[in-house]
């Protein structure tokens, strides 16, 4: 990106190669999925409904990048990656928040229990508080492991496929 001067020096330029077009039309004024501003080329035809066909990676010259990303998002492979993500994150988040709120409720509703000594000056509240830190680290490790084993390969394949499909499209 070249250095810009003037009033809008910090604004993102639309010809910036790192700019990602909106994929679903959210937040753009004309509903096309593309940022507002001067057109950089002819309008692309609308994307067909449904996921891209097998082997469709190189023949997407008539589609805009937003259309291609929308097709990929509606595809079965992308939905499977999202399903695997949700199957881990939702239960893990619920379990973590239950554990966290149980600690807070116990600290306020049962102070005599939380003050019970475990070893020397270490009481139940201290052990549970340290358990909060430990559970955060364990959850982070479990998330990274789950992502590596169950989602990263499929997500990387989708990324490569999408890059092949968007090669040559204008933003």
- Number of DSSP E strands: 2
What structural class do helix, strand and pairing data support?
Answer: mainly alpha
Q: State the distance separating the first and last CA atoms.
A: 15 Å
The 3D shape can be described as: rod-shaped
Radius of gyration, rounded? Answer: 25 Å
Main beta sheet, described?
Answer: 2 strands, antiparallel
Low-confidence stretches: 15-28, 33-60
Key phrases:
171 residues, mainly alpha, two-stranded antiparallel sheet, 3% strand, rod-shaped
Describe the structure concisely for a colleague.
The chain has helices at residues 65-74, 76-109, 111-114, 124-150, 152-166, and strands spanning 117-119, 122-123. The protein is mainly alpha-helical and 171 residues long. It is rod-shaped, with a radius of gyration of 25 Å.
Overview of the structural elements:
- This protein has five helices and two strands.
- By secondary structure, it is mostly helical.
- A two-stranded antiparallel ribbon has the order 1-2.
- A hairpin with a 2-residue loop joins strand 1 and strand 2.
Map the helices and strands.
Elements (H helix, E strand, L loop, with lengths): L64 H10 L1 H34 L1 H4 L2 E3 L2 E2 H27 L1 H15 L5
Antiparallel strand pairs: 1-2
């Amino acid at each position: 990106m070249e250095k810009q001067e003037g009033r809008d020096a910090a604004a993102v330029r639309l010809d910036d190669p790192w700019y990602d077009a909106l994929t679903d039309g959210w937040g753009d004024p004309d509903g096309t999925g593309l940022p507002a501003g001067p057109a950089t080329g002819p309008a692309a035809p609308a994307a067909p409904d449904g996921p891209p066909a097998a082997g469709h990676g190189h023949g997407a010259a008539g589609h805009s990048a937003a259309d291609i990303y929308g097709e990929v998002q509606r595809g079965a492979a992308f939905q499977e990656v999202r399903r695997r993500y949700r199957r881990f994150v939702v239960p893990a988040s619920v379990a973590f928040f239950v554990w966290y709120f149980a600690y807070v409720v116990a600290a306020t509703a049962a102070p005599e229990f939380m003050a019970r000594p475990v070893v020397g000056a270490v009481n139940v509240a201290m052990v549970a508080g340290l358990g909060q830190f430990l559970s955060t680290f364990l959850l982070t490790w479990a998330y990274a492991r789950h992502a590596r084993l169950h989602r990263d390969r499929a997500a990387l394949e989708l990324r490569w496929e999408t890059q092949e499909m968007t090669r040559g499209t204008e933003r």
